[in-house]
Design goal:
This protein is an alpha/beta fold. It contains 16 helices and 15 strands. The chain has helices at residues 7-15, 36-48, 61-77, 92-105, 123-132, 149-155, 178-187, 203-208, 248-251, 277-314, 340-349, 379-396, 403-411, 419-429, 447-455, 458-472, and strands spanning 85-89, 114-118, 135-139, 160-166, 191-195, 225-228, 241-245, 256-258, 266-268, 319-321, 329-334, 355-357, 366-370, 433-434, 440-441.
């Protein structure tokens, strides 16, 4: 009989409360190939290299070899020229951070650097703006949720160090007009980064399968760098992405070296120093295991699942697809008969995790699905769950936030809130509660929480969720015996 106090048994018990990472039902955060052998190879490779350190390529040359091969595969997918170089990072956010930092540092003559973003660009660019002191210039998108090339071009000025486009955008799953925007950036001598963290490992195969894919790779003149996440549609273990630059000169400002201390001369290609070899080895092994034809097959499955989801949504009068998807991301909206946050809860209750997206600008709340190859085998189950969830949400009626509460929230200044104010708001919103023994309790259903967040300003949402995270991450003492 297993010892329930052993670390591994405790891990299994703890994991019981987590979302499933296999089975194709978690439609955010994880990407499931649906192939058990891929998962087995990944686990063994990660374990084999868990103690290795990619900090020094001369100490662990096998990791350098694997990274160079992964970058080479990415270059082939992205139509990169022979001059292209790249770096394996910890994920899409780090790839984006490095693209922004490198662009900033390539222009030391610019005192107040700016980057031009479509309003749909990933929040990681705002994080980079915050970290690196680069002003984010947001440009409204068109009715099709794609970047507006003319507006993007007009926003470029002498202080612009980077222009950004998405392939596809996360919130709506559409590919921006990369060729037009990149041409405008090139005409001003400005770098153009394509955020293909989601699409980079699936759009090339979609094109090979005969899908209509807008130009977005290095085949487009003016594209200077592309980020593509291997831990998404390369179906690799969490913790890897690839950032590719058109040539070495573009990448060079990304590197950091320091001999200004008595220890070893620090030399880093990424924001990290010590890097576990586990994710690198796991990614390399998975890419080798699946291979080119395997990725073509998996892309076909994922896209077939997308088509089935679009079809099933069309059969539900209360639902619509916000915009036809260009890749593997589907965004749903509801009519007045069906509350989107309640629908989200109902789907989760039936074993399908989908991600609510709050109102933004003139657009109301939506529901996001990241579809994987592993989802295809379960689309009939999703159809049944979706139909039942819509009926349940309609029967429940809309989630209403008291008008006085709305007025109170609107009158608050997020920057002026203290801890007691935030504690009260968190309790009122239902984000946190306290059990009888004083432990923090999370809500089992989120519709009322999301409805309250939806009426709050973006600044208030940020303040509340930062406070929420702060209260979640508190020490648990007395663990070691």
């Amino acid at each position: 009989m297993p010892d329930p106090t052993s670390p591994l048994e405790r891990l299994r018990a703890l994991q019981g409360a987590d979302l499933p990472v296999h089975g194709g039902r978690t439609l955010a955060y994880v990407y499931d190939s649906g192939e058990p052998e891929v998962d087995r190879v990944a686990r063994e490779a990660v374990a084999t290299y868990a103690a290795s350190n990619a900090l020094d390529p001369t100490a662990f040359p096998s990791l350098l070899q694997m990274e160079n091969e992964l970058v080479g595969v990415a270059c082939d997918l992205l139509h990169a020229p022979a001059s292209a170089v790249g770096t394996v990072t910890s994920g899409g956010t780090e790839s984006i951070l490095l693209a922004v930092q490198g662009a900033r540092d390539s222009r030391p003559d610019v005192v107040r650097p700016r980057m031009v973003l479509p309003a749909t660009a990933h929040a990681a660019f705002h994080k980079a703006a915050h970290y690196f002191g680069v002003e984010a210039v947001l440009v409204p998108v068109g009715a099709d949720f794609r970047a507006d090339p003319a507006a993007m071009a007009a926003a470029i000025d002498d202080d612009t160090v980077l222009v950004v486009v998405s392939a596809p955008s996360y919130a709506h799953g559409v590919v921006d007009p990369v060729a037009e925007v990149a041409a405008a950036a090139a005409a001003r001598g400005v770098r153009c980064h394509v955020d293909a963290c989601i699409g980079g490992w699936v759009l090339p195969y979609a094109a090979r399968l005969g899908r209509d894919v807008r130009p977005w790779t290095f085949a487009v003149e003016g594209v200077t760098s592309i980020s593509v996440d291997t831990h998404k549609y390369a179906y690799a273990p969490k913790g890897t992405s690839v950032l590719v630059h058109r040539d070495a000169a573009l990448r060079r400002p990304q590197f950091f070296a320091s001999a200004a201390w008595p220890g070893y001369t620090m030399l880093n290609a990424t924001t990290q120093s010590t890097r576990s070899g586990g994710p690198v080895a796991g990614t390399w092994a998975v890419v080798q295991q699946i291979g080119d034809e395997g990725y073509l097959r998996l892309a076909g499955r994922a896209l077939e699942a997308v088509d089935a989801i679009v079809e099933m949504v069309g059969a539900e009068p209360a639902l619509r697809v916000v915009v036809p998807p260009d890749s593997t991301l589907v965004t749903l909206a509801t009519d007045d008969s069906c509350d989107p946050f309640t629908l989200t809860d109902e789907l989760v209750a039936r074993g399908w995790y989908v991600q609510p997206q709050l109102s933004f600008g003139d657009h109301g709340p939506t529901i996001h699905l990241s579809v994987s190859a592993g989802t295809l085998a379960h689309v009939d189950e999703l159809r049944t769950a979706l139909h039942a969830s819509v009926a349940a949400a309609q029967a429940s009626g809309p989630v209403a936030v008291d008008e006085q509460v709305v007025a109170f929230i609107e009158a608050l200044d997020p920057a002026a809130l203290g801890d007691e104010d935030l504690d009260g708001l968190l309790a009122a919103s239902g984000l946190v509660g306290t059990s009888a023994d004083g432990d923090l309790e999370l809500p089992s259903r989120m519709a009322e929480v999301n409805a309250m967040l939806d009426v709050a300003s973006p600044a208030m949402r940020e303040a509340l969720l930062v406070a929420f995270l702060d209260r979640l991450q508190r020490p648990v003492r007395g663990v070691l015996r």
